[in-house]
């Protein structure tokens, strides 16, 4: 799924594990992984625990925010989720993920 956050309807985000990317029109903002996409994304959109993303949301609001989610198979283990997240961070270079480089 790839949509503007404002266009996402309640219940549309599954209660499944997966990866997500927040971005604006120009760049990736934040990449994450979780066991429950619906629960985690509600947390981010309510009051993100990532200070940079929370500040961005406060300054820009939801209108410019886009979301891409990738639901993973139930058999995917946490270590694989984390590896996929790391790959997305390296390839998309989101501005609010902490980088080791």
Key terms:
single chain; GIY-YIG endonuclease; 101 residues; 4 strands; alpha+beta; 3 helices; 22% strand; 36% helix
CATH topology: GIY-YIG endonuclease
- Give the biggest beta sheet: 4 strands, antiparallel
CATH class: Alpha Beta
> CATH H-level name... which superfamily?
GIY-YIG endonuclease
**How big a fraction of the residues is strand?**
15-25%
**Which H/E pattern describes the elements?**
EEEHHEH
Low-confidence stretches: none
Alpha-carbon Rg, integer = 13 Å
Shape: globular
Q: What is the annotated CATH architecture? A: 3-Layer(aba) Sandwich
Strand order, sheet with most strands: 1-4-2-3
Kindly report how far apart the N and C termini lie.
30 Å
Query: What would you call the structural class?
Result: alpha+beta
Number of domains: 1
What is the arithmetic mean of pLDDT?
Answer: 92
Explain this structure to me?
There is one protein chain. It is built from three helices and four strands. The chain has one domain (2-92): GIY-YIG endonuclease. Strands 1-4-2-3 form a four-stranded antiparallel sheet, with helices on both faces. The relative contact order is 0.27. With 101 residues, the chain is an alpha+beta fold. It starts with a strand and ends in a 9-residue tail after the last helix.
Brief rundown of the structure:
Helix content is 36%, strand content 22%. With 101 residues, it is of the alpha+beta class. The protein has a single domain (2-92), classed as GIY-YIG endonuclease.
